[in-house]
Amino acid sequence: MPLNVPIILTWLRIAMIPMVVGLFYLPDTWMSVPVRDTLAAAAFVVAALTDWFDGWLARRWNQTSAFGAFLDPVADKLMVCAALLVLLDLGRVDDFIALIIIGREITISALREWMAQIGASASVAVHRLGKFKTAAQMIAIPCLLYYRPVYGVSAHIVGMVLIVIAAILTVWSMCYYLQRAWPAIREKSQ
């Protein structure tokens, strides 16, 4: 396993997941709900920024690797799914939205793995639809974790609008990837 700054940042992102989730299991006497929500939202933002930064560093320093290409999306999916489960438990995100996003992550991960095995991974390479979906999620989730107004703007409302947009982009991008993979799927299943 190669060890470089981009991979260390990816591991840091994975290590932050229990911290974000754990904040919601601390007794209420340890900290107030606003402090807890602020810390969780801030930790999620830091983790999301490491996602952008590790990719940028890997390309800039020419430290890309097969392991990093595998670990980075796994870290992203773990982070998003863990946060969605916390938000579900808090009643801050709809069950259907969480199911759409988590289901898509599992489906596309499995599709990419299978396409790589049959040598057709280029047909399910990351597309800008997926990037827009990720951006909407990465802004929506901390808004929903924070859940209070920021400079008079409701983080809750902004988060709800963006998570709905993320869910729509989730379905759209999943259909796009499945359509791109369909010829290889049809050929290999006959």
Q: What would you note in describing this structure?
A:
The chain is mainly α and 190 residues long. It has a single domain (5-189), classed as Four Helix Bundle (Hemerythrin (Met), subunit A), CATH 1.20.120. The chain is 78% helix and 2% strand. The protein is built from six helices and two strands. The protein has a two-stranded antiparallel sheet. A hairpin with a 2-residue loop joins strand 1 (149-150) and strand 2. Helix 1 packs antiparallel against helix 2 (33-60). The longest helix is centred in the C-terminal third of the chain and has 35 residues, at 155-189. The protein is globular, with a radius of gyration of 18 Å. The N and C termini lie far apart (37 Å).
Question: Can you summarize the main beta sheet?
Answer: 2 strands, antiparallel
Mean pLDDT: 89
Alpha-beta content class: mainly alpha
Strand order of the largest sheet: 1-2
Radius of gyration over C-alpha positions, nearest whole angstrom = 18 Å
From the N-terminal CA to the C-terminal CA, the straight-line distance is 37 Å
- Element order: H for helix, E for strand: HHHHHEEH
- Number of E strands: 2
Q: What is the annotated CATH architecture?
A: Up-down Bundle
Strand content: under 5%
| Helical run tally | 6
Count of domain modules: 1
Helix content: over 70%
Name the poorly predicted regions. Answer: none
Gross morphology = globular
By CATH, the superfamily comes out as CDP-alcohol phosphotransferase transmembrane (TM) domain
CATH-defined fold name: Four Helix Bundle (Hemerythrin (Met), subunit A)
- Would you state the CATH class? Mainly Alpha
